[in-house]
Amino acid sequence: MTMKAQPPASERPWRAALSYFGGVFALGFVLGVARTLFVEAGVSRLLGVALELPVMLAFSAWWCSRLLRQQAVPARVPARLQMGALAFALLMLAELLLSTLLAGRTLAEHLALYRQPSHKLGLAGQLVFGLMPLGLLGWDWVRPGRSC
């Protein structure tokens, strides 16, 4: 049985950030479509986001902790901040691209969305997502080498 070589410690936060963003974005895309088609039709957009947010944050915590272990991201503030900042930046860029390319909004129109309560709540959740790697620093169940 061969051991898979770990990337250098300096690369681990970046690699983990890509996987963290990818997994959470994929779930968010699916839930966002479902929310738009099924939930918001019967309730307000704000309530739809409020119902979706706990699911997204719970998944983010689980996925982040798993990646921290798998990628052996150092349990140090700079590494965790790098991971969270890159994942957050990718998430915001993906949201901007979806808004401008798929919904046909201008940059100004996209930024204006953040004045709406539902988008403010969503942004708060995205900030928590970005801070998750740092927030999990020191948790026993996130330490490298522990099983899921």
Mass-distribution shape: elongated
Estimated structural class = mainly alpha
Count of DSSP strands: 0
Q: What is the helix content?
A: over 70%
Terminal residue distance: 21 Å
In N-to-C order, the SSE pattern is HHHHH
Summarize the biggest pleated sheet.
none
Low-confidence stretches: none
Radius of gyration: 17 Å
**Could you tell me the mean pLDDT?**
89
The portion of residues forming beta strands comes to under 5%
Output the number of helix runs: 5
Question: What distinguishing features does this structure have?
Answer:
148 residues, mainly alpha, 5 helices
Describe it.
This protein is mainly alpha-helical and 148 residues long. The chain is built from five helices and no strands. The two termini are 21 Å apart.
